């Protein structure tokens, strides 16, 4: 038995469409109003500064939103976009507009690991705030208590670089970690960092037919 299980979300625990369609569509029209309505929020101030730095845009909210929509259309994992999306989703879950759904095998597996003493963490490109809101408002209730840590591309780094997995291992204080993901390149990076790896090949998902060699591969948790 492994000491830690670290889990990807999109395509591993939850359908990709829930993120790329449901959550993206919810955030898209709310980005501009959120920036304007929370202009004094330090997280929003920092995100706006990052957007300007990365894009070179120095105009108003409309121009910032055009940049953000372009990143969304390209499914780019850009930090200020993830920050703003996470804040909007956090609010959406809190007011009941959004409810997280999982593949049928997921919640029983999470609870079984937890009962068996395996410690659980998440490493997703979505912001930590978004992750916490996601697990706090699900069709199976509040699951936040199952997880010990949350990692994203801000506090860990890019998901396809071994250095990110070294950082997580240091934070967890363990080298006995198993990573579950539907993306082979992420598994390669985790394995390079010395982690055990499991590819999750779910039928109908974008990486469902990918080559997961040499990683052990499952179709459900």
UniProtKB/TrEMBL annotation:
Keywords, sorted A to Z: Amino-acid biosynthesis, Hydrolase, Magnesium, Metal-binding, Methionine biosynthesis
Pathway: Amino-acid biosynthesis; L-methionine biosynthesis via salvage pathway; L-methionine from S-methyl-5-thio-alpha-D-ribose 1-phosphate: step 4/6; Amino-acid biosynthesis; L-methionine biosynthesis via salvage pathway; L-methionine from S-methyl-5-thio-alpha-D-ribose 1-phosphate: step 3/6
Top-level division of the source organism's lineage: Bacteria
Cofactor names: Mg(2+)
InterPro entries: Enolase-ppase_E1, HAD-like_sf, HAD_sf
Pfam family, one: Hydrolase
Catalytic activity annotation: 5-methylsulfanyl-2,3-dioxopentyl phosphate + H2O = 1,2-dihydroxy-5-(methylsulfanyl)pent-1-en-3-one + phosphate
Cofactor binding annotation: Binds 1 Mg(2+) ion per subunit.
Enzyme Commission designation: 3.1.3.77
Protein task: Bifunctional enzyme that catalyzes the enolization of 2,3-diketo-5-methylthiopentyl-1-phosphate (DK-MTP-1-P) into the intermediate 2-hydroxy-3-keto-5-methylthiopentenyl-1-phosphate (HK-MTPenyl-1-P), which is then dephosphorylated to form the acireductone 1,2-dihydroxy-3-keto-5-methylthiopentene (DHK-MTPene).
Family according to the record: Belongs to the HAD-like hydrolase superfamily. MasA/MtnC family.
Known partners and oligomeric status: Monomer.
Protein name, per record: Enolase-phosphatase E1
Name of the gene encoding the protein in the UniProt record: mtnC
